[in-house]
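quick one, 182 residues, struct below
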Amino acid sequence: MIRSAGALEFVHQDISSITSGFTIADTSFHHVAVTRSSNSIIFYLDGVPSSAFSDPGSLGFHGNCAIGNDAALSSDPAGIVDEVAIYDRALTAAQIQGISAAGSEGKCTTGFLPRFAPTLKLNEAGTQMTLIAQPGTECVLYASSNLVNWTAIATNVAIGPILNFTDPSPPGTSRFYYIGAH
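---
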């Protein structure tokens, strides 16, 4: 997450937090990555690595999970999170620098892909999310509680550039999402 002073911070339940030393003080897009290998965390800002930080805690999800916000979704971030990826391994410095150096072509394929808009809303109806999609594209919302088993939970066709989905899972349920387009 990015704190109000612009500091990049990694937080998980078994530790209070690790702050990178990097600060984002402008409104430009930046590539941010965090790797964790064994008990070492390294932050990257625009391909530049921080020094390694010790993380003695175990990394598991025992409650809410959020990227760009705190787990309670209470930090009210002012930025936009785009092209989120979670890997089953720590990427190398060269891999992260390659993605960062590619800029807007880093991970997007050609064409207009559906992508999450920056806000998810949690209420009694479930998790409401907004997508930006090419009109006429059929989008399928997939959900997983463990990043291994994925289930299609909704299908919708974009009539305009904005497409809304609701995951009716009970409040307090931690889920990961991705969008498939047809």
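The chain has one helix and twelve strands.
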